[in-house]
Amino acid sequence: MAQEPEISIVIPVFNEEDNVDRLHTSLANVMSGVARPHEIIYVDDGSSDKSFERLCALANANGPCTVVRFGRNYGQTAALAAGVHHARGKIIVTMDADLQNDPRDIPRLVAKLSEGYDLVSGWRKDRRDPLHRRVPSIIANRLISSITGVHLHDYGCMMKAYRGDALRRVTLYGDMHRFIPAYAARDGARTAEIVVTHHPRTAGKSKYGLSRTFIVVLDLLLVRFLSGYGTKPIHLFGGLGLLACFAGMVAGGITLYEKYAMGVFVHRNPLILLAVFLFLLGVQFILMGLLAEIEMRTYHESQNKTTYTVAQVVRSEQIA
After folding, report:
1. Which of 12, 68, 225, 296 is most buried by its number of CB atoms within 10 A?
2. What is the distance between the alpha carbons of residues 77 and 293, in angstroms, rounded to a whole number?
3. Could you report the per-residue pLDDT of 182-236, keeping only the tens digit for each?
4. What CA–CA distance (Å, rounded) separates 154 from 136?
5. Is residue 120 helix, strand or coil?
């Protein structure tokens, strides 16, 4: 019987027909020198070129290799989630299919995991991309690090190694794959970062543009909300509601003072409108927080999801 893989390499693929053959050859050469059973999982994200056909040919000629095909393009996060779902290894390595990541970095990433980390992220220190892609990336990485508290130089680098149980605890939605380190750290994962090789793209077309920067900002707001208030949304919405109500009462108090002390008629004072608006806005925020609390409790209780993660259980008979 074939050995169960210890290392699963997950690679999302979208219109990379000119790169997959060379990628697979390079992977095979690198992994032949790694004395641990492994598997390669390609996820074809609805490619419109010959990527799927080439991947199938590779799977038939070389093993162990699995090809997962989507019916249409769902995006990199969905492809990554599908690959993780099919991965059997205790260690999961992710990388791009565009030949810009170097498979020779895989042993270094895996070795770093053995130092006690749950996630090792690659840092494309000498990034070989155009300036219009590097500058927004630098800004985004600093913003993400400061808001999430997980300080990495390169959140966007797909070259990462994970302990399988740590990655499988992270449920991926939308376009959130770049925030996996932040999600994992929220559950207590220990993270590290090493410099990895980055090559210029020589074939195919990049799937990322400047518009991605604005999407990152929106996704970051969601990450911050889920990490800080995911199980207690009333603290956020209720706090904003109380602040708005207080500001409305202050504006109302000023209005009353001006009426009785200065003789200003209420219908001529714009502060009365501001007072009413802020107070009603505050009430709406509080009601929104209550509804969010009900929704989150329904979500956790209906699916038996805990609001915590257990890292280890030690029983008395084990302590001797």
Report:
1. 12
2. 27
3. 888 888 889 999 999 999 888 767 666 556 667 777 777 777 787 777 778 888 8
4. 12
5. strand
